[in-house]
Amino acid sequence: MSQVVVVGGGLAGAEAAWQLACRGHRVVLYEMRPQVTTPAHQTAGLAELVCSNSFKSNETTNAHGLLKAELRRLGSLLLRVADGARVPAGAALAVDRRLFSDAVSRELAARSEIAIRREEITALPDAPAIVATGPLTSDPLFDAIRARLGTEGLYFFDAISPIVSGESVDDSKSYRASRYGKGEGDAYINCPLDSDGYEALRDALLNGEIYRTPEWDEVPYFEGCLPVEVLAARGRDALRFGPLKPVGLEDPRTGELPHAVVQLRREDREGRMWNLVGFQTRLRYPEQRAVIRLIPALRSAEILRYGQIHRNSYINYPALLSPHGSPRDEPGLIFAGQLTGVEGYIESGATGLLAALNVDRILRGEEPVLPPPTTMLGGLLRYLREADPRNFQPMNANFGLLEPLAQRIRGKRRRREALAARALNDIERWVDTLDRAGTAASGSG
Q1: Binding residues for FAD, per the UniProt record (predicted)?
Q2: CB neighbour burial string for 381-403, b if at least 16 within 10 angstroms, e if fewer
């Protein structure tokens, strides 16, 4: 039985540790919290969800839903635990953050193969190891990574949304509904805005004072997580076509679509906490309070957590790492999670799972593998290794990552259905190939 070091107890590290243990390896999992904290984490729990409680859509015609389906076939711990900690969120998979983190922590602690150590790692471990310290990697370790890879690294700023108390939302000025009626009817609270209210909200976002430092003005935001005030500055209707779009959210009291809708998504099973969907921001706290008060249903809302902004670090993967995510001269030291330039909970966990699979293969004397680019996981990894190193930016799961279909199919939904069917078939065949190879290796040992 080999020993593998996993650095980082977030989503990627937790998934990696579990997968390695399931393959018979002893794992030492290092997590620096609570001894060393970060600007975004609030607990010492493993797999803590920082920005949102949503893993996004479960539908395979959605890129994130397709990636989930692939990971379920690969035996993902995170998705199994997420199903058990689920809260109503329509077609999305959203969880009670505390229940989710607690359950992941219990699962890992219960494995005799895994030793959890609460201490900061300031130097890169020797292979075999997985480094999954996330976008908030501590400065000493990131310095060690820079020294090892010979680069200054890359970074961008990420923002998180405010959370309000559910009992403080005005029911007379809001309604419960999921978009297009999908999923549970009480998954979201919808706070409608008329045209005047929308314009007032946009003006407040544009004129609000933001937290500002010289370095913040030089670093790009990730397009998938733009601060709401930045999006508001892109045009009068940018918010109405973005996080405040009313499409599919008819007000049952009028039977009509509002001009705009601020959605609240349930944070916990009891419905005590609700997240302002798409309202990540760098506004100062007084400005956030003033903006939220402009939403009629939230004029008396109790704000439980204000939006925040923090720096996210990542490695220039295509310039510096091998196809499977290691330094080119040390294949058994694999980077995983958002540190590699993926963006999103499921994407991070996916890279942790794949890193564990490849460490296991290397320890068994086999070559690392990557899923076919017809799958969402394979397409994501192809992007990381083939993107232009001069303009490398973090990437979410999306259908543009997939190998095109042999035949053109008209209609976005039909095209996505065909892409998803092909991806699920190909991930099935790929996993079967790995299983057969593993069985053969075990039989010859």
Answers
A1: 8-13
A2: bbbbeebeeeebebbbbbbebbb
- What digits encode the pLDDT tens for the residues 79-91? 999 999 999 888 8
Region of residue 172 (left: phi > 0; alpha: psi -120 to 50; beta: else): alpha
Mean pLDDT of the 413-420 span: 95
For residue 441, the model assigns a pLDDT of 45
pLDDT band for position 22 (50/70/90)? very high
Residue 307's CB: how many other CB atoms inside 10 A? 23
Contact call for residues 347 and 355 (beta carbons, < 8 A): no
- Whether 57 and 64 have beta carbons less than 8 Å apart is answered as yes
* Residue numbers belonging to the annotated binding site: 8-13
Read off the amino acid at residue 264: L
pTM: 0.79
* Confidence at residue 442, expressed as pLDDT on a 0 to 100 scale: 44
Q: Determine contact, residues 257/247, Cβ cutoff 8 Å.
A: yes
Measured CA to CA, the distance from residue 353 to residue 40 in angstroms comes to 24
CA 8 from centroid of its chain's CA atoms: 15
Please report, in range form, the residues annotated as the binding site for FAD.
8-13
**Alpha carbon distance 205, 294 (integer Å):** 11
Do residues 27 and 20 make contact, with C-beta atoms less than 8 angstroms apart?
Answer: yes
Residue ranges and CATH numbers for the domains of the chain are 3-153+315-444 (3.50.50.60), 160-311 (2.40.30.260)
- Tens digit of each residue's pLDDT (9 = 90 or more) over 58-80: 999 999 999 999 999 999 999 99
Among residues 387, 326, 312, 403, the alpha carbon closest in space to that of 362 is found at 326
User: For tokens 């779009």, what's the residue?
Assistant: 245
